[in-house]
Amino acid sequence: MSTLQPPMAALDAALEEKRIELADLIDRHTREDGTCATGVDALFMSRYSQSSDFSPSLPQPALCILAQGRKEVRLADEYFAYDPLNYLVVSVSMPISGRVVEISPQHPVLALRLDIDPMDITTLISEAGPIGVPSRPAGRGVYVEPIDQVMLDALLRLTRLLDTPRDIAMLAPLIRREILYRLLRSPLGYRLYEIATENSQTHRVSRAISWLNGHFQQPLRIDDLAREANLSVSTLHHRFKAMTAMSPLQYQKQLRLNEARRLMLSEGLDASAAGYRVGYESPSQFSREYSRQFGAPPVRDLARLRMGL
């Protein structure tokens, strides 16, 4: 298990002023705990006033900002922590788990999420031409970077539009484009660049990930997945693990178990039905792998979740 956590430091005065304004905007536009859409396309706000255990999700690519509080994201056995000093980027849709920490009703976690359409990155690259993004070996599809004044200023200008709705249609697309440009020019922006660059190996792995996300119930044949990605089997394994911290088989297992847990919680399916729905033929195998993943058999795990423990 490894923890990838940025060093803590104090915000400088200019950043702190912008952070306070952003926190105030989120506070005014959120009335209760949870995540809500806003009047700006692809921009979401969240408020959390109670801590919780890690909750699995399959987010689409996104930029995640905290104006107040702290959050941890888990990918396989790696942990990524972010806060008002550091933003988190999910560059490819993958099964991750997240939880909020350092929280109280008086000081809730206040967050923004800006979803990223990879096609917008591709269009920006093609229209802007060379923008000085270095080519480097592929890294994780989740990463944390320090925020700076230009990025926070752009996010603040985008969020301010919620107070002047008549300006959203004209200005929001321009500011979103600026934010994507800033992301690409950041030290780790090459991870977005590679995914959006047609026929790069990273782009091909992202195709394999997308295929698995949509077909995880089906038996996994590595040769077929390699053909889908137009990569050799060995290259697919190497690049896939570099991006997701998992092998394709481990990745499929995460998807299956997370979806089975969701089905039991939200649709009331029993363990056997949920396991069968996500592709398990053996109830005993499903129970064993579920216990390893969540620390308890399905019935006990669900009872714990419903009691909020």
Q: How is this fold's topology laid out?
A:
Layout: E1 2-4, H1 13-29, E2 34-37, E3 43-48, E4 55-57, E5 62-68, E6 70-75, E7 78-82, E8 86-90, E9 96-101, E10 109-115, H2 118-128, E11 142-146, H3 149-160, H4 168-185, H5 190-196, H6 201-215, H7 222-229, H8 233-244, H9 248-266, H10 271-277, H11 283-294, H12 298-306
Parallel strand pairs: 1-7
Antiparallel strand pairs: 2-3, 3-10, 4-9, 5-8, 5-10, 6-7, 6-9, 8-11
Protein name: AraC family transcriptional regulator
Pfam families: AraC_N, HTH_18
Domain HTH araC/xylS-type: 206-304
What does this protein structure show overall?
This protein has a six-stranded antiparallel sheet with strand order 2-3-10-5-8-11. 48% of the residues lie in helices and 18% in strands. By secondary structure, it is of the alpha+beta class. The longest helix has 19 residues, at 248-266. It is globular and about 55 Å long. It has twelve helices and eleven strands. It has two domains: 2-195, Jelly Rolls (Sandwich); 198-309, Arc Repressor Mutant, subunit A.
